[in-house]
């Protein structure tokens, strides 16, 4: 099976023939290795050195130099707005406190659709309307612009005991 082993970012001019495109939701745009099929039928194996977030407009480079464009699929989201800038910042804090992916715009925030969070937002004075659009959440503080979703393990040469004076049933 043909492999895609490199990414050309959307901001970089593309040198090569785009032969197909893959339409991926937010979850499927964060990958290292996965069998894929373009909308035109091109089958290939995404085989990157590490898990990477693929952005709308990026191109996957096949072994023979041909390119497959990445398109962000529309997803069911909540568009969150508030009556003032301060109120929106307050809502962003509450959303961030729940550690869920969020896309932050100048006057709105988008999160994956969740009826419980919609009610929370409304209870705090904001609006939360369902929308269908591509989701491009923030990468996070340690992502360097692109979330890479790997654990940071630090071997200390000793174990950490998690013994408790009580039993867990």
Automatic annotation (TrEMBL):
It is found in: Cytoplasm. Its main location: cytoplasm. Residues 159-169 have a biased composition (Basic residues). Keywords: Chaperone, Cytoplasm, Nickel. Residues 129-169 are annotated as: Disordered. Residues 3-68 form the UreE urease accessory N-terminal domain. SUPFAM superfamilies: Urease metallochaperone UreE, C-terminal domain, Urease metallochaperone UreE, N-terminal domain. Involved in urease metallocenter assembly. Binds nickel. Probably functions as a nickel donor during metallocenter assembly. Belongs to the UreE family. This is Urease accessory protein UreE. It comes from Methylobacterium aerolatum. The gene is ureE.
């Amino acid at each position: 099976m043909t492999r895609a082993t490199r990414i050309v970012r959307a901001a970089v001019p593309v040198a090569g023939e785009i032969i197909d495109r893959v339409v991926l939701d937010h979850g499927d745009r964060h990958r290292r290795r996965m069998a894929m099929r373009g909308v035109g039928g091109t089958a290939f194996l995404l085989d990157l050195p590490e898990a990477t977030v693929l952005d709308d407009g990026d191109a996957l480079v096949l072994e023979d130099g041909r390119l497959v464009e990445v398109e962000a699929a529309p997803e069911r989201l909540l568009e969150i707005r508030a009556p003032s800038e301060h109120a929106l910042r307050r809502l962003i804090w509450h959303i961030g406190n729940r550690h869920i992916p969020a896309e932050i715009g100048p006057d709105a925030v988008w999160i994956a659709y969740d009826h419980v969070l919609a009610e929370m937002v409304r209870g705090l004075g904001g609006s939360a309307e369902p929308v269908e659009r591509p989701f491009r959440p923030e990468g996070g503080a340690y992502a360097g612009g692109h979330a890479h979703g790997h654990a940071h393990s630090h071997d200390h040469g000793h174990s950490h005991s998690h013994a408790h004076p009580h039993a867990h049933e």
